[in-house]
Every structure is written in C-alpha cells, then in structure tokens.
Design a protein that fits this description.
Number of strands: 35
Number of domains: 3
CATH architecture of the largest domain: Alpha-Beta Barrel
Strand content: 15-25%
Radius of gyration: 31 Å
Bound molecules: 2-acetamido-2-deoxy-beta-D-glucopyranose
Structural class: alpha/beta
Helix content: 25-40%
CATH superfamily of the largest domain: Metal-dependent hydrolases
Number of helices: 25
CATH class of the largest domain: Alpha Beta
Length: 937
C-alpha cells in the first residue's frame, strides 16, 4: 500500500506573495498554539506553521502554478529581446495528437512567449519594433526536445578534465546531480542548436543503478553565462534543501540504469544491481514512512516529543520518487531488466516515466503495462542497435510496434552517443520504418515534453508556450531537413544563417514512406532476430529472366565514374532486363522484349520499381563490419592487433603484417542488413594501435569465406593510425612511420616489404588521422619519401575531420580522403569541423570536392552502415553546386574504389522501389553479374 501522508485539504497553489502567506501561516500558528497550549499544555514549536505546511505539501503533485497559464512574460525572457513576427509559415503545432497543421499562419512572439498563432492582426502592431520573418510557406515546428542527453557533462571535445557523466563511487546515489557537472563551454551547444534542438534533459550516465538527478536545460547561450541560467523550471531544491513549502513543487528528473553498464562498472551482476535498487528504495521507504508518521502527528497537533521533521539529504530525492514527484528515466534494454524494474515498481510503488534505449520493449508491451502507476514511455534510437548484447534484438520497427500498442514513443540522442544535432534524423528514420508522421514529429517535441512534466510550456506552438521554434528548409521528415532559423525564448540563435541551396519544392511535402509491415511482423515473430537473407535468390541455373519495370533513374559505373544511363526513363515503359545477374537491355519495354526468348517468356519475373532507381552497389569503409558481430562482446569479434609502439608484439608475429582477411566474420546481422540496404561490399582493416595491418574487400552477402565471390580482394591497403593522446607521442608515431617508409626501421619480413610497397606506391597507404596538423605533417612526409625514392605514393587520409583546412594542398598532392558525412568534434584533433548550414555555407565534403580531392564516405558504426544510402543523398543536398546524383553516388562507390585501387572488384547493382533514394524508397533487389544472381528481398 502506498502510504499517503495524513493531510487536510491540499494546499492550493498560491498567487499571493510569500510574505502574505507567511503572515497567514503565522496567524494559523498562533491560533493553533493557543488552542494547543490551553488543552494539552504542550510546547508547540516555533516553526509549527512551516512544518504543517511542509507536511501538507508532501501530497502535492508537481506542476505549474495555476497562474502559469496567464503569464505574459517568460521567467526566461531576456530583457531587450525584440519581439518577432513570423509570417506565412506552415506550422506543425503539436496539437491534436500531432495532426494539427496551420497553413499560411503567423506566429507572434514576445517576452519569451508565443503570444498568438494563426492570423495576427498586424494593423495593431508597430512593425518597426518587430523582427519580421517572411517564412514564405516554410515549415515551422516547436524546438526539438532531447529527453536523453549528456551534453555538458560528457565533454566535446572529450577532455579528461571535463568528463563528468559517471560517478564510480557507489551503485545507488540518488543524491548526485548532473547540474553539478554541467560544463557551459561545450562545442555541442551551438551544433545541437543548429539542428533545431532547443531543450535537453541532461542525465547522469548509466554506470550506476541510481545515477542521480537529471536537469532540463535550454541550449542557448545566456547573458549570465552560468549553468544555473540554462535550467528550465528546475525543482526548488536546486538551491539547497530548504524549500518554500507553500510553493507548488516542480517536477524532478532522475536517472536509473540496469543491465550491462552498472554490472560492468562495478564488476557485478544483474543480481547485484537489482539488490542495490531494493536497498536504496527500502531506505527511502523507511524515511518516507517516518516522515508520514511524523506528519500524521504534527497535523493532529500532537507535538509532544516530536522533534525535527525527519529528513536525509542523501535520500530526500528518492523519497520524492516514492511520493510520485520525480520523473524516473530508466536506462534499461532487455526483457530480464525490464521485468526486474517492473517488479521493483510494484514492490515500492512508484511510476517510471520512461524506459530509455529499451531495445526489447517492443517485444513485451504487456509487461510494460504492468508497471506501477502507468506504462512508461519508451525513449529510443531509430536504428542504432547490436553494439552490445542487450541491444542485439533491437529493431528499426520497434517505434511503430510500440505505437501500435499505444505506448508513448520518444526518440533520443544519448548525446554524444549520437550527435543530438541530428535527433531529427532519428525521428525521420522512425517514420521511414513505420511510425505515423504525427507521432514521429511528436517523438522529439510534444511527447518528451509531456513525459518530463514540461508539457505546459515546451513542445508545442500555441499561445502561452515558450517561444522555442524552428524554421525548416524542407518538410521536417524529409531527409536532410535543416533549420534556417532556430529561436529559443524568443531569441534568434543564428545571425546570418546559411541555407542549403539544393532543396526543391518536392521536399516540402511529407515523404511517402514504403510499407514495412511484413518486416515488422517478422521482427516480432522471430523475437527480434528475423532472417535477413534474401527472400529469394535467382541463380543462373533457374534460367529466370528478371525484368525491372517503372525505372525512374539508373546509374552505373563507367571509367571510374558514376554516370546516368542515357535514357528515356521514368515511365512504366522503362525496363531493365536481367539474365543471370547481367543487365542485357535497358530501355523501352518493346525494344527490350526482343531479348526475351519465347522459351524464357513463360517464367519472366517482373519487379515494378514504381519510379524507383537502379544504382551501383555501395561500398562500406570505416567500421568493423566484417570483423565483428557485437562490438561490445570480445568473443564475437576479431579483436585488436598488437601495437608495436608499446613494445608488446609477441615474437611469433613480430615483423608480420596482420591481414584482416584472416579474421573475416561473415553473415553478421549488420552485414546482412547492410546488404539489404544496397551496400554490397565492404573494406575493413584490422585495428589496434599505430600499425593496424592490411585491409580486405569482401562481399557483405557471402555466407562464408570460401563462398564464390566472398573475398573481393584479400589485400587492399596498408593501414596506420596516427592520433593525439595515443600511447606514444604523435612525433614518435610519425618518426616510426618515416623509418618504416624509408626502410630504415629495424623490422623483419612482411612489415619491411609492406612499407616499401607503400613508399613506392604499389599499395595504398591509408593513414587514420583527424587533425589538420597531423595531416599537414603527412603531406610533407609524402613529399619527402617521394623525392627520396622517386616514387608516387598512394596516400589516403581516413577520418580526416579537419582535412577541409588543407583542401587545396590535398588536391594538389593528389591525396584522397575518407570522411564522415556528419563530422563531430568528439576529440581535440577533430574540433575544427566545418559544420555546414545553418552555421556555414560549405561542408567539409563540398570544400574538398571543390579542390578536386577524391572524397569517399566512411561510417564508424557497423549497425549504421545501412544508412550509407541516405548519407550519399544527404551529401548531395548539402552541396552548394547543383544537385548531382552521380557525384553523390561516387562518394560511396567509385571514389572509395579509386582510393583503394579496387576499380573492377564489384559490379553489383541494387534496385529500389520508390523514387529518390531517400525515405520514399526501399531496396528490393541486388543484381550481381559476378555471382550471376539476382537477390530479391
Ligand atoms: C505564402 O507563401 C507561399 C509560398 O511561398 C506563397 O505562394 C503565398 O503567396 C504566400 N502567402 C502570402 C499571404 O504571402
Ligand atoms: C536559485 O537561486 C537563484 C539565485 O538566487 C535564483 O535566481 C533562482 O530563481 C533560484 N532558483 C530556484 C528554483 O529557486
Ligand atoms: C532457383 O535455383 C535454386 C538452386 O538451383 C533453387 O534453390 C531455387 O528454388 C530456384 N528458384 C526458383 C524460383 O526456381
Ligand atoms: C511474352 O508474353 C507476353 C504476355 O505475357 C506477350 O505479350 C509477349 O508477346 C510474349 N513475348 C514473346 C517474345 O513471346
Ligand atoms: C578541378 O578540376 C577541374 C576539372 O579538371 C578544373 O577545371 C578546376 O580548375 C580544378 N579545381 C582546382 C581547385 O584545382
């Protein structure tokens, strides 16, 4: 039973000032004391009125005070901020379950608040006092709300002196507060704002069962520059333990975590973590019961020997959880952990606001509904999964399935696990995989606001809400949608925002996403591990002819470039006829029909692409795809090589170049998903330290190494990593590389031969390096070697976050780069990112391409390799030249192959149903001439 404190009438939120209340309290105190003194002759404590108020307040539910809704000025208003009138916007308000859209609407902002929405009578305004924005019909949404972020507590760039996410001083520490570690100088504030993120819940990390209290902040800079000034409606306890008992309490937030992380941090098990929860909650329950017993007597006027109100600064926040006054955010993935937590809520009777990450929640909706109080919301990634065991059954269809079960879905970044600048991309992907559009937009605005108890002021565009709005260059659920302005508390965050030039009119409409209902069903049927192999493989022996009809566009590789097939395409009449994996005819149906014999005619398979595309198979590079199944599990992956700079190389392999081909692991779920997403081949290098070894190119669909076409090239390039903060200094790493390239280092056999090959340009040398300083050193080293050897090296820089600073030199020296589509300053050597719109006109990719640098795309995370198709399309939209599909495809095909010398290794094509290569299309088939097959998905 939940013991509610004995209370009289609940104290209503007061509109009068504190002094007036105090006067009232003193009056009631004197009345009570007079009465008590005369009847019982008991000494009534001087602070009795406060104590009584405190006791009565224990049963108050947090929320805005009554007068909140008639506020005319925000408590976050910065005096001097000009009012803003946004005219003619298409407003997604967040109202009507996310379905309300106002067209040609005006939004009037003043005093940090949205003053009116819809038709604004401008005749009564002195327009010269306003910042007037003509939206020209563009989309306007509420500011994005990230319910799970470590921005400011985990630093970007990462520096050990500003690493405040996790305490390692105890499994259950409800007394810790993320606010106390909130660094105000993180690079990510501005970057995340540039993605439209205006508010974030800053959670402690997940190393503890109870990691501490979280705080909601707005990301804009403040005139005061303090962390305090960033807080949004903080609980009154923020300034200390003495709380005005007469004020209606505000919601608090708290982090819990279960499963692998607390186990790992404390060398324990799930049993230990669950016990830590129970012990802490038992302590809180005991304290709560003491308080309630105390208050029962105080409210009865039974003061004899009552003493002080029982409290404990370490447990008061957890007591508040038991009183239902804290939004509990519970990092919890697997069914075992979800079950444990649901039991815990039943044992101690408290609600959980949200399960976070929660990769298995979609498998157990009924379990979630058994949680005490109400079913938790689910805060999740869209497609980021399989990085550890508890994420292994994660599904891209989870959001849709949870919503089908009427559970609240929130998309979150876990910044900087994902860069919160692109939280919108998570909502877009959730929508792509089946979450209804209204819920997808709500999942990063209204839903998290409501779940955090802040739905009265953020997450909607409506009169009286905080003036946090984002103006977009396309429909917000369209791939690559980018803010053109972000307004927080009425303040414009970008003085001179740059816009992406390539957005076209078609992008102003909601993308029509493909149907994934069959896949979603299979995800459930197979407990999160549905078969990923093609539905059907048509091999040469079948003698089946496949005819792709309704082709909207077709691109192929030719002479090291991607070209569009000259065509009279885009009609139901355009076809490609494929026999044994070879495309024998592309053109109008009547012409190509000649290629189908009468004998074959009976068994022709037609695949209608519905204005879709046929593109060259994409190549993945940069992640451990091919060397790992579960990155967090040592026993599922190839592992690390020895680092010669630490002197740890065993004699047996000293002088040997480690080959990735020897460690290849096929049929990982990430590889099969990549294949189904059009990434038909991958390059992977061993990794370990300075001298990584030799990379391999392989087919993502192969079942094992001995299968035909599994290994495309067993030795591709020689890989070295140079990084700041490594075990040896950068100058030591460069000295070692120089020695190796000059053949002067005292090394044996293969290593000597390998570097001699690299110095002579017989094999590409791929150096992972991020900082412009390191890259500049490598440019000079290349010249030095080439002059000495009379050779031309094939140097490629991978990572290359700061390469745009040297674009001209790299172009001149013919040094290629492999870069991420969305760079992020996670470390010091990556801090000079070129962010792109709205912060800068150019991106690193556009800058490098302008200088004729060969640019390939890379991705770091094996579970996100699947997004390479989106990444190429996204890069094209950011370009400040004309949209050029062919060039954008080169980034993930011919350019990568050129850099690695793999020009003819893979002639696969893939076909997608639906137009555009973005969220309107779905990969339907891979056409492989080398293997003589067509795989149908
Ligand atoms: C609003 O913007 C749209 C799109 O640019 C334009 O067609 C329309 O004329 C504008 N309406 C007003 C009232 O300015
Ligand atoms: C905390 O103290 C600061 C400085 O006195 C004040 O501005 C702020 O309103 C206080 N916050 C709360 C929640 O009481
Ligand atoms: C094609 O041939 C393969 C192997 O020869 C066989 O397993 C498959 O069922 C055949 N498919 C069709 C559609 O005939
Ligand atoms: C193949 O079959 C279609 C009908 O399915 C027919 O229209 C066409 O003429 C046939 N072509 C040949 C070459 O037999
Ligand atoms: C890049 O190449 C093009 C075509 O060869 C050439 O016109 C242009 O001047 C080059 N740009 C730079 C910066 O070298």
């Amino acid at each position: 039973m939940d013991k509610a404190p004995a209370s009289g009438r609940p104290l209503q939120p007061q509109r009068r000032g504190f002094l007036a209340l105090l006067a009232l309290a003193v009056l009631s105190y004197s009345l009570t004391s007079t009465f008590l003194l005369s009847s019982n002759s008991v000494q009534v404590p001087l602070n009795a009125a406060t104590t009584i108020a405190q006791c009565r307040a224990l049963s108050l539910t947090p929320g805005p005070p009554k007068d909140f809704y008639s506020r005319t000025t925000s408590d976050r208003f910065v005096p001097g901020t000009k009012p803003t009138l946004i005219r003619n916007a298409t407003v997604w308000t967040g109202g009507d379950d996310g379905k309300e859209i106002l067209t040609a609407a005006d939004v009037l902002i003043d005093k940090g608040i949205i003053q009116s929405v819809g038709k604004v009578d401008i005749s009564r305004l002195k327009l010269e006092d306003y910042v007037v924005v003509d939206a020209k019909g563009a989309w306007l949404t509420p500011g994005i709300v990230d319910m799970h972020s470590h921005l400011g507590v985990g630093s970007s760039p990462h520096l050990s002196g500003a690493s405040d996410t996790n305490s390692h001083k105890g499994l259950a520490q409800p007394w810790l507060r993320s606010l106390d570690g909130l660094n105000t100088h993180d690079e990510a504030y501005r970057l995340s704002l540039s993605g439209g993120v205006t508010t974030a819940n800053i959670l402690p990390g997940s190393a503890n069962a109870i990691g501490g209290q979280a705080f909601v902040i707005k990301l804009r800079p403040t005139p005061e520059r303090s962390s305090n000034a960033m807080l949004l409606e903080p609980p009154f306890t923020v300034n200390g333990s003495e709380v005005d008992p007469f004020a209606k309490p505000r919601w608090r937030q708290m982090k819990h975590a279960c499963g692998e992380n607390p186990s790992r941090a404390y060398s324990g098990t799930r049993m230990d973590t669950t016990w830590a929860f129970r012990q802490a909650y038992d302590t809180a329950r005991t304290l709560r019961d003491k308080q309630d017993a105390y208050c029962a007597r105080a409210l009865d006027g039974d003061w004899a020997g009552l003493g002080e109100f029982p409290n404990d600064l370490q447990y008061e926040a957890l007591v508040d959880v038991l009183r239902g006054r804290v939004k509990v955010h519970n990092h919890c993935y697997e069914t075992v952990d979800l079950s444990n937590q649901v039991r815990l809520t039943q044992e101690f009777k408290f609600p959980i606001a949200a399960f976070h990450h929660a990769h298995e929640t979609y498998l157990v909706p009924d379990l979630l509904k058994q949680a005490y109080g109400h079913p938790p919301a689910i805060a999740m990634f869209a497609a980021h999964a399989r990085y550890k065991r508890e994420a292994y059954r994660g599904s891209e269809f989870a959001a849709k399935i949870l919503a089908d079960n009427r559970l609240d879905v929130v998309m979150k970044s876990d910044h900087s696990v994902l860069d919160s600048r692109y939280l919108l991309f998570e909502a877009q992907q959730a929508h792509y995989y089946g979450l209804p559009w209204n819920l997808a937009l709500a999942s990063i605005t209204t839903t998290p606001s409501r779940v955090m108890g802040l739905g009265h002021r953020i997450g909607q565009i409506a009169k009286g809400f905080d003036a946090d709005v984002v103006l977009w260059d396309s429909h917000p659920l369209h791939l690559a949608a980018t803010p053109t302005q972000v307004i927080v508390d009425g303040i414009h965050q970008f003085d001179d925002p740059h816009t992406s030039p390539n957005k076209n009119l078609g992008m102003q409409k909601l993308p029509e996403t493909p149907d994934f209902s069959e896949e979603a069903k299979l995800a459930l049927e197979y407990e999160g591990l549905p078969p990923l192999e093609p539905k059907e493989t048509l091999v040469a022996t079948n003698k089946t002819v496949v005819v792709f009809t309704g082709i909207g566009e077709m691109y192929v590789k030719r002479d090291g470039h991607v070209v569009e097939l000259a065509s009279r395409f885009d009609g139901p009449d355009s076809v490609a006829v494929v026999k044994e994996g070879r495309t024998v005819c592309v053109g109008l149906h009547d012409e190509c029909a000649l290629w189908i014999t009468e004998e074959e005619n009976g068994s022709v398979r037609y695949v209608d692409l519905q204005h879709g595309s046929i593109w060259p198979g994409l190549v993945s590079y940069g992640s451990a795809l091919g060397l790992t199944h579960i990155p967090g599990e040592a026993s599922t992956k190839d592992g690390s090589t020895f680092d010669p700079l630490t002197g740890s190389v065993p004699n047996l392999v000293d002088g040997t170049l480690i080959r990735a081909v020897d460690g290849l692991l096929f049929s990982s779920r990430d590889a099969l998903i990549a294949y189904r997403s059009g990434i038909t081949s991958a390059i992977v290098a061993p990794s370990g330290g300075f001298l990584d070894g030799l990379s391999v190119a392989f087919s993502t669909s192969a079942p094992h190494k001995l299968a035909f076409g599994a290994v495309l090239q067993d030795i591709v390039a020689l890989h070295v990593t140079i990084s700041l903060g490594g075990k040896a200094s950068v100058s030591t790493q460069i000295a070692a590389l120089r020695g190796l390239l000059f053949g002067e280092a005292d090394v044996e056999r293969e290593v000597k031969k390998g570097f001699e090959g690299a110095a002579r340009g017989k094999i590409p040398l791929v150096v992972a390096a991020e900082s412009a300083d390191t890259i500049a050193t490598l440019v000079l080293l290349k010249k030095e070697i080439e002059t000495a050897k009379g050779s031309t090296m094939r140097l490629v820089i991978s990572g290359a976050t700061e390469a745009h600073l040297l674009a001209e030199e790299l172009g001149k020296e013919n040094i290629g780069v492999l870069v991420r589509q969305r760079p992020y300053p996670s470390s010091w050597e990556k801090r000079r990112v070129l962010p792109g719109p709205p912060i800068s006109a150019k991106t690193a990719i556009s800058t490098l391409l302008e200088h004729n640098v060969t640019v390939g795309l890379m991705s770091d995370d094996p579970s996100l390799v699947r997004n390479l198709r989106f990444d190429t399309t996204w890069a094209a939209f950011q370009w400040d030249g004309a949209i050029d599909r062919a060039k954008s495809l080169e980034l993930a095909t011919t350019n990568v192959e050129k850099l690695f010398g793999l020009e003819h290794s893979n002639e696969d094509l893939f076909a997608s149903v639906g137009p555009g290569g973005g969220f309107q299309s779905k990969v339907a088939a891979v056409i492989s001439p080398s293997r003589g097959v067509v795989d149908l998905f």
